[in-house]
Amino acid sequence: MQWGGACHRSESSVAFLSIFRQPMNRPKREFVNVDELSRSVSVEQVLAHFGLVHEIAHRVGHEIRTRCFLNCSKTEPTGDRALAIQDHDVKRWCCHSYQCPHKSGGNLVGLVDLLSPGENASGRPRGERFKEVLRTLQEIAGRTSSLAASALRTDAAPALESRPVNIPLADSPNERARGLVNLHEKFITDPAAMNPSAASYFRRRPYLTSEIAAAWRMGYLSRDAGGDASGGTMRGKIVYQLWDEQGRVVGYCGRNVDFESQMQAWINGGRQGAEPVKVTFPKGLHRGLLLYGEHRLREAMRARAQALGAIFVVEGPNDAIRMSLLDVPTVAVCSNRITTEQADKLAHWSAELGGVPITLLFDLDPEGEAGSQQALFELAQRCPVRLGWSRSMYGGRFKDRQPESLTSEEWSVVHSHLRPQAGDDTPGA
Q1: Phi then psi for 311, rounded to 5 degrees?
Q2: Strand 93-95 relative to strand 83-86: parallel, antiparallel, unpaired?
Q3: Structure pTM?
Q4: Cα 203 from Cα 254, distance rounded (Å)
Q5: Which of 64, 257, 271, 299 would suit a FRET pair with 142, their CA atoms being 20 to 30 Å apart?
Q6: Are 73 and 101 in contact (CB under 8 A)?
Q7: Is 163 part of any domain?
Q8: Is 389 left (phi over 0), alpha (psi -120 to 50) or beta?
Q9: Is 14 part of any domain?
Q10: Residue-number span of the structural domain to which 206 is assigned
Q11: Is the domain of 298 the same as that of 417?
Q12: CA 327, CA 321: separation in Å to the nearest integer?
């Protein structure tokens, strides 16, 4: 070797020597305490970052329940409480969906990995993906001021206003609301004891016997029932008790017994003033989250839905009650328009029952058919769906009819038409 000449070094020796050429005062790499970073943000802040805070369906204490919105291998929508997230410490979570590969869950780092765009690491990020997740968490923690953070916490402000929830009356913090759980005990179910308008309403619907009305907890609430003012906005109306999927009472709706005459008078008077209201829902109740009769679909009618190979959807409570008497698994949207939440719920049930089609039986008037078109569009994006009838089907036989008016013989006609797709040879009557 020539000390004063060129020295030929191998690549490994260059790499080795370069270690000793680094500045001795080079700053150490910044250390990120991942657990502390995870504790510094709330689940709502993270979901807000990804535009998902409205998905929260339920919260009790630290536990948040939502549908599964993770970028995983699921092929079907889940229930709205499949994903459980603990909003404390490092945000442990797990998915309770039967098809989910993440039943063991993980922490907030894994959650952000499964929410972030790009190829994820199945909730176990490493290398560059791990660094990307940390940058996302740091961005969320740095961007959220203390004021915004308090606004996002459910115990400090109405953080979940974008995701309404129907609280069971029995669990309401309002004592008067809790007392409404048994409002149905004041309902009159015998037409002979009702005022003329309410009695006429029942007599035009012979299937609404006193026994059926009591079983469905519906009936006439007179203006002076019970000697108190409970159920104020429902007084003088035909009232229906409303339940959530678990069968818990969440409220009531009231049907104006004089609606038809009031509407005709309003039209004859040149449509002056406010249009008469047909159905009243109490303030604070979110109708669009409910499907009337859904708790029965989870229980008594589930086997029938599997046998028929269909779930039927109608507009109003009376339609659902009448169809149940024909042994048809039916829920009502309490409108002629379906909501996103109702469509999601129906799609979930369809998947649970092996992909049975949702079958629409909306009223056969112009408004009902317009609603059917909207419902078809919403549901077709989520699950199999079909029309059970229309104004022109069956030779126009059912034009301007409603499901509640179907006789057993007429239902057999509809059922026979649907039977090749339903796969059931037993009449529905």
Answers
A1: -120, 125
A2: antiparallel
A3: 0.62
A4: 18
A5: 64
A6: yes
A7: no
A8: beta
A9: no
A10: 169-289
A11: yes
A12: 10
Lookup result for tokens 């791990």 = 130
How many domains in the chain?
3
Residues 93 and 128 in one domain: yes
Both tokens of 298, joined, read 């989870």
Domain end call among 289, 304, 338 = 289
Any idea which residue has 């998947």 for tokens? Answer: 351
Strands 93-95 and 279-280, how do they pair?
A: unpaired
Same domain, 299 and 285: no
Q: Distance between CA 389 and CA 214 in Å, rounded?
A: 30
In 3-state terms, what secondary structure has residue 419? helix
Q: pLDDT in tens for each of the 429 residues of the chain?
A: 333 333 344 333 343 334 334 444 544 455 678 888 888 888 888 888 887 877 777 777 778 888 888 887 776 777 777 888 988 888 888 887 766 665 568 899 988 999 888 888 888 888 888 888 888 888 888 754 333 434 434 343 343 344 678 899 999 888 888 889 999 999 999 999 999 999 999 999 999 999 999 999 999 999 887 666 677 789 999 999 999 988 899 999 999 999 999 999 988 998 888 888 899 898 888 889 999 999 887 666 777 888 888 999 999 999 999 999 999 999 999 998 999 899 999 998 898 888 899 999 999 999 999 999 999 999 999 999 999 999 999 999 999 999 999 999 999 999 999 875 444 444 333
SS3 of 155-209: the string is CCCCCCCCCCCCCCHHHCCCHHHHHHHHHHHHCECCHHHCCHHHHHHHHCCCCCC
**Of 240, 259, 289, which residue sits at a domain end?**
289
